[in-house]
Amino acid sequence: MTIIATQALTKTYGGGVTALSDLTVDVDAGVIGLVGANGAGKSTFIKIMLGLLAPSSGEVRVFGLDPVTETDKVRARVGYMPENDCLPPDVSASEFVTHVGRLSGLPKTAARERASEALRHVGLYEERYRQIGGYSTGMKQRVKLAQALVHDPDLLLLDEPTNGLDPAGRDAMLTLVHRIGTEFGISVVVCSHLLGEVERICDSLIAIEAGRLLRADRISSMTTASDVLAVEVSEGTDELASALRALGFIVTPDGRQLLVPLESETAYDRILRAVADLDLPLHRLDQRRHRVAELFTAKETADV
Amino acid sequence: MSDAGVIHDIGYQRYDGPRLGRAAVLGALYQHGLRATFGLGRSAKSKIFPWGVAAIVLLVAVINAAVRSQTGTWLFDYYAFADSMSWLVIFFVAIVAPELVSRDLRSGVLPLYFSRPLRAADYVIAKVAALATAVWLLLGVPQFIMFLGGAFTTKTGMRGVWHEVGLLLPGWAYSVLWAFIFTSISLLIASLTGKRAFAAGGIVAVFLMTAPVVGVLSVLPSHTANDLAGLASPMSLISGVEAWLRGRNDLGINVGDFGVIYGIEAFCLITACLLLLLARYRKVASL
What we know:
Chain B: This is Membrane protein. Chain A is α/β, with parallel strands linked by helices.
């Protein structure tokens, strides 16, 4: 199901700055990564989808609705988590999320119930009765996520949800986002300038650069047939490399590891047998995907 | 997983209840704002000031009603009460207007508001209505207490009560005028900065620092300048409107033949402030 569709979408700001140029993309439901460097047009794209900015030309449809003319209908189904700090310090998370729930059109009691539900889902329990000013950055990010969830949207737009978090906090946030996308049945657009971070949790990826579409596709199709097995042995690395080459594999040494592309079903077993035949102490056997980043930067060479 | 004491996650529940429209959202924001003006739902600290001011004006009204019932003469009538209390209201709006709008600017919460069905105009209407209601309550409730005092001690029965109602209603209308002049000016100033202290200072300055200008103009040797002096400050402007509408020149302000100018300026000032406020939020909302 297509949830976001754009047709030659262009946004030019007053000073002649082009934020988006001729963007045409169809996005299916699921977890979607929107990647690009700072200033690539990610935030502009989000604001256009929310009806906060009108496109200069071209069309955009969210759930088949035009955000410019049917703003309320779109916003009722979309939750937005901005990049910047946006929480008042002197109220409790539970009061605040209830308040924004009411501003989304929920009746009073429903807003209160949904607020505690949303806070529970993002992992805030007793803390939610404390004032937000005393929260850690990680907890604040969770409150920001909860306020986007409170009116039960069908689509979440998250602008840099891992901003300012430590590695553990990043992982927790990404896991949460992935859970929302898979278990809650809510589609999520995750904006990030870190490709490696979103590729783990996304079903599909949109990459933009300077307002232009670089590539939009499902992650699975970007990485098919490019799985690589990383083999590391404590000793006899060269021996193994020549043995594998003799078996017809293309072996690339990478530091202490050997990278071997898995081009057939039986390749994994054959590599393993080669290691066993040489009786080498196996240290690591790691099946991994090509980083999506490689597909963007050096697609031609990666295909070799 | 099945340890005792583990709260079982029943999973995510979709919401399929009613979703209310923009009118209800505006109502919710108005209610939230009105509660905030009196510090309800906020810390104890933020209740002190509004309730302190409320206590003073109520006390004055009670004393006024008591004196009248004993001696038969007013300390203040309904208009004079609003005029005198307006000096206290300056400090009330200087604290409360930044609480309503500067706080939202400071915490950056507006993108969350404006990504919901709410529009800039709705936000402005809700905040103006909330502060205007608060200021009106601050003047209107004590006026009502004065009315009760007068109505219960009247010696002419129902006719006396109706006479009192006839005095109260224009008094309330006058308080509405005060409420709008305070609300429009103070919200406009507060919407320009996220720092509450600056906003409070700016509001007090506009209302108080303009008073000396009126003083200087009113002692100039020109008769016209004296009559127009009150236009320079919002405080004397409203008194001037009263003097014009009631045809009085014993209110400490002389408007001469220029009464209608006071009326026009009051109207234009309120309208201009509200339009500027709307323009300000149109800009903020699109960020």
